[in-house]
């Protein structure tokens, strides 16, 4: 006969904390993926570098007061929807319109918008990863 050991409250709390951390990391990985997709779409559809595309995405998120991963998800969804020939939601179309206008007017606002002082081409890695 096998005996079942009771977990101590400390062990149970540690397990719960680790499970919550794993769930948070999975969510962060999903968010990072969609942010990368949106950055690639912006870079492909507007005349800018991937670094500038990320800056435009951040600017869009701040201007519309929405979280970065939500802005990214809406842009990717709008692109796929339009690519399939379906009408894009007006609010999502407004995000693309904002990006086009911001990029045409030189709307990237950070000091390194052209990659200056960026010797390895990856200046904003820490802020991108933490999003």
UniProtKB/TrEMBL annotation:
Q: Which Gene3D superfamilies match?
A: Winged helix-like DNA-binding domain superfamily/Winged helix DNA-binding domain
ANTAR domain location, by residue? 15-76
Give one GO term, molecular function aspect. Answer: RNA binding
| PROSITE patterns per UniProt | ANTAR (PS50921)
Transmembrane parts of this sequence: none
InterPro entries associated with the record: ANTAR (IPR005561), CheY-like_superfamily (IPR011006), WH-like_DNA-bd_sf (IPR036388)
Cite the residue spans of the region called Disordered: 105-131
> Where does the record locate the signal sequence feature?
none
Polar residues composition bias: which ranges?
Answer: 122-131
Q: What is this protein called?
A: ANTAR domain-containing protein
């Amino acid at each position: 006969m096998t005996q079942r050991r009771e977990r101590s409250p400390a062990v149970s709390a540690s397990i719960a904390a680790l499970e919550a951390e794993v769930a948070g990391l999975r969510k962060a990985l999903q968010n990072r993926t969609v942010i990368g997709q949106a950055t690639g779409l912006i870079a492909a559809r507007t005349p800018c570098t991937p670094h500038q595309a990320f800056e435009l995405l951040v600017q869009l998120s701040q201007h519309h007061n929405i979280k970065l991963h939500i802005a990214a998800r809406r842009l990717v969804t709008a692109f796929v929807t339009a690519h399939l020939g379906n009408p894009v939601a007006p609010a999502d179309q407004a995000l693309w319109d904002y990006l086009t206008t911001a990029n045409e007017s030189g709307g990237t606002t950070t000091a390194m918008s052209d990659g200056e002082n960026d010797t390895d081409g990856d200046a904003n890695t820490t802020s991108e990863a933490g999003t």
